[in-house]
Structure formats: C-alpha cells, structure tokens
Amino acid sequence: MSKDITAITDYLLELDALKLVNRRTYIEHGLRKENSAEHSWHLAMACWSIARSFAIDVSEEKLIKLALVHDLGEIDAGDTFLYSKDRDTAHTAERDCVLRLECHSGNSISELSVLWEEQENGESIETRLLKTVDRLLPFLHNISSHGKTWKELNISRSQVLKAHAFIADDFPEIHSWMLDKIEIAVTEGWLNDC
Questions:
Q1: pTM for the whole structure
Q2: Within a 10 A sphere around the Cβ of 190, how many other Cβ atoms?
Q3: Which band of pLDDT confidence, cut at 50, 70 and 90, is reported for residue 3?
Q4: Would you identify the CATH topology of the domain 5-188?
C-alpha cells in the first residue's frame, strides 16, 4: 500500500501548530509563559507519574492518549484561560478543530474525536485523573512563580477554590495539598483574600 508522505508531513505540521498557542501560565519559576504543546507533554508525563505514584488502576495507554489529544482543539480555538468568562463556549471551536484534524488526509488516527470527547465529557478514572492533573499543573506553576499569573489577573482565593473543588471527591490527598498552598498564596499576597 502506497502512503502519501506529503499528506502525512502536512498533517504533522498541522499538529506542530500547537506550539504556537501561548498559555497564561508562567513556567521556569516565572521566566516565561508555556505553550500548549509543552503543557500537553507535561500533562501526559504528570498523569502517568501520578497514576504510578498513587497506584491508580488505569489504562496508561488510554491516559496518555487522552492527555495528548486534550489540547489539540486549541490549534484553531486558542487557549481559554481557566477563569475566563468565555470558558463555557470554548469547547465548540475546539471540537471543530479536532474533527478537522481527524479528517485530514495525512491523519491515520481514526479515534481522535472519540478520545477528545471522552477527555472533555467522560467520567472514566483516566478522564478524572486527567482533569485533576490538568488543574494541578498550572496551579503548581503559580505556586512556583509566586502567583505571577494570579497577581497579573487579580485572581481570588474563592475563584481558585471553586475551580479546584471537584478534585476533593476523587483525589482528596492532592486537594488537601492544594488547600495548604492556597493558604500560603493568600498569606503571601499572591491571591486576593476573597
């Protein structure tokens, strides 16, 4: 069977565009902002590591695939900040992008949309872990950078508590650690105390 190498390489360049999507999260202790491709790699590695650290019974292959497709829709839609008012509608443009990528003549991964929908709406242990770690990483970067993004955007304790409350149900140990860090962030002035 003949392969269309040009279509395949065109598709790989389409995926590479995720590197151009800048996030609001500062990395390297606040030196620069990360891009969505860096976040996707970090998310996959962190999910894998946490699953092993906590001995969580997951399909590691599925978990890593979910992490890798998680932000693909941002190629067209851009990144939507966690505390943005537009967050509720971002998934529509992201879904359209994933479908576009899935239909690309150089793509051979037929389940891109299925995986993306699962990470977006699913309730599997893999999905719940992914969502937790997806919130944990920017939180961790904010702690590492002394709340640089939080301070720039005037984020409050109540916003952070609300955005991370769901973690308490599935991963109480992680949630408890985050609560301790939130108190430090408020004390240090990284988060508004309201």
A1: 0.94
A2: 22
A3: confident
A4: Hypothetical protein af1432 (1.10.3210)
Residue with tokens 């790989």: 12
| Secondary structure (H, E, C), the chain | CCCCHHHHHHHHHHHHHHHHCEEEEEEHHHCEEEEHHHHHHHHHHHHHHHHHHCCCCCCHHHHHHHHHHCCCCHHHHCCCCCCCCCHHHHHHHHHHHHHHHHHCCCCCCCCHHHHHHHHHHCCCHHHHHHHHHHHHHHHHHHHHCCCHHHHHCCCEHHHHHHHHCCHHHHCHHHHHHHHHHHHHHHHHCCCECC
Give the pLDDT of residue 87: 63
The confidence score (pLDDT) of residue 114 equals 97
* pLDDT for position 162: 97
Over residues 86-92, the mean pLDDT reads 75
> Considering only CA atoms, which of 114, 181, 109, 102 is closest in space to residue 145?
181
Domain ranges for the chain: 5-188
